[in-house]
Amino acid sequence: MDTIPAIDNPEVFGLHPNADLTFRLKESLEMINTLQETRPKDSGGGSNISRDDMVQEKAREVRSKLPPDYNLGEVREIIKKISGPKGLADKGMSVPLNVFLF
After folding, report:
1. pLDDT digits (tens, 9 = 90+) for 16-51
2. Are 45 and 57 in contact (CB under 8 A)?
3. DSSP sequence for 26-69
4. In the beta sheet, which residues pair with residue 91?
């Protein structure tokens, strides 16, 4: 034989010949299920809102609950004033916890 077969015979691995059929059937069903789960769905509940509009609405709702963006310069100045653990004279960005918090 000049080429290596694209599909290994299950008997090579000590499996029954139907093992390949079972594997391929399972693989095909998983692919079909994945396609069905990821395809766009109509919104339920009788409303006329599309799924995309529902997602956009939820994203706006979550965004409205987020705190405002912080000013990097202001935060850096606050971190410079924070001291390290008791007994150490280190302050600011020389303290590992402060670097983490920054």
Report:
1. 888 888 888 999 999 998 888 887 665 555 567 787
2. no
3. HHHHHHHHHHHHHS-----TT----HHHHHHHHHHHHHHHSPPP
4. 83
